[in-house]
């Protein structure tokens, strides 16, 4: 259990500290909105907060995890805690009425009562208004925790009555570990975790054949640039331009190309930073050996310039031809 709390601290150090300070100073609000992307730990931290407030043996602002109350919260049998999930697409008015009925009946234990609303952005208008009245005039000691990935979709009147706690994106090293636990290779986990820090999006990209194709094409181009401009242009005409007809695909490919050159800089500077393409280490070492920092900087600037030109709707063939010439300049291969 201590490991679980350690993991939460690694995932959301600022949020955990915020909640611990609220507990320590006994400044518990009657309602919170926990906002963060999927995979940022909102549900687990909501349960941590409930346990912190009901634990019988709190030590250093951390619940003990072993007392009767902690165990009942973990097992879902704590009578003073209710949770609501959307019923279909929305959280309906009857669910909120039932929640309020449960919260106001007398069969509860002594002490603070809690309710957690999952996907609170899916409250419809009628259920939002019903909840609003209860938020304004809760009976007794009641704390609401609303969880959402989409804060702006919650009624402003509800927002104004809740303390807003914003969760940080998942740190890259944690995202990479989680992806590998899902059976995704280190190489692919390293790449997708640079493109997004949303767990759901990362898993989708890691398993998407189109994304894998973009990655392969980009790395093929880096290898071709190393040889000569003719090889590079051949890849541009045969693979790059036919594959990346949509602007979004071209943007992604240029981003992945930029990451490759950043990796080469990382290798050259002997930095401990995690590579975006760990599977390319041997090749990037060779490139780093034959490149100066000034040259690598100019190459990255050329890619960034190309990305800007893409937004200006320049002719893509001419744009990529110019980029290949700029990337080829100055290589010292014999």
Automatic annotation (TrEMBL):
A cellular component term, taken from the record's GO annotations: DNA polymerase III complex
Enzyme class: transferase
Protein's recorded name: DNA polymerase III subunit delta'
UniProt-listed GO biological process terms: DNA-templated DNA replication
Coiled coil regions in record: none
The DNA polymerase III delta subunit C-terminal domain, residue ranges: 245-328
Sorted UniProt keywords: DNA replication, DNA-directed DNA polymerase, Nucleotidyltransferase, Transferase
């Amino acid at each position: 259990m201590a490991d679980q709390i350690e993991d939460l601290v690694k995932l959301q150090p600022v949020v955990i500290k915020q909640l611990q300070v609220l507990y320590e100073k006994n400044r518990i609000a009657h309602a919170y909105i926990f906002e963060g992307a999927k995979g940022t730990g909102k549900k687990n931290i909501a349960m941590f907060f409930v346990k912190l407030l009901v634990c019988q043996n709190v030590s250093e602002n951390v619940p003990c995890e072993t007392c009767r109350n902690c165990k009942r919260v973990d097992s879902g049998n704590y009578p003073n805690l209710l949770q609501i999930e959307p019923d279909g697409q929305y959280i309906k008015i009857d669910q909120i009425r039932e929640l309020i009925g449960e919260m106001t009946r007398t069969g509860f234990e002594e002490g603070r009562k809690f309710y957690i609303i999952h996907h609170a952005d899916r409250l419809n208008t009628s259920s939002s208004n019903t909840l609003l009245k209860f938020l304004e005039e809760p009976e007794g000691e009641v704390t609401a925790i609303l969880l959402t990935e989409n804060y702006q979709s919650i009624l402003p009147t509800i927002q104004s009555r809740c303390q807003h706690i914003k969760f940080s994106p998942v740190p890259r090293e944690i995202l990479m570990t989680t992806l590998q636990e899902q059976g995704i290779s280190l190489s692919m986990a390293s790449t997708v975790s640079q493109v997004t820090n949303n767990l759901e999006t990362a898993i989708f990209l890691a398993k998407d054949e189109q994304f894998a194709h973009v990655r392969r094409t980009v790395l093929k181009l880096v290898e071709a640039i190393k040889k000569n401009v003719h090889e590079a242009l051949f890849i541009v005409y045969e693979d790059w331009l036919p594959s990346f007809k949509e602007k979004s695909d071209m943007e992604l490919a240029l981003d992945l190309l930029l990451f490759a050159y950043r990796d080469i800089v990382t290798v050259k500077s002997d930095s401990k930073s995690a590579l975006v393409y760990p599977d390319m280490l041997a090749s990037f070492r060779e490139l780093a050996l034959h490149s100066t920092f000034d040259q690598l900087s100019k190459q990255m600037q050329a890619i960034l310039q190309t990305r800007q030109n893409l937004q200006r709707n320049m002719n893509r063939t001419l744009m990529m031809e110019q980029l290949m010439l700029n990337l080829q300049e100055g290589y010292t291969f014999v």
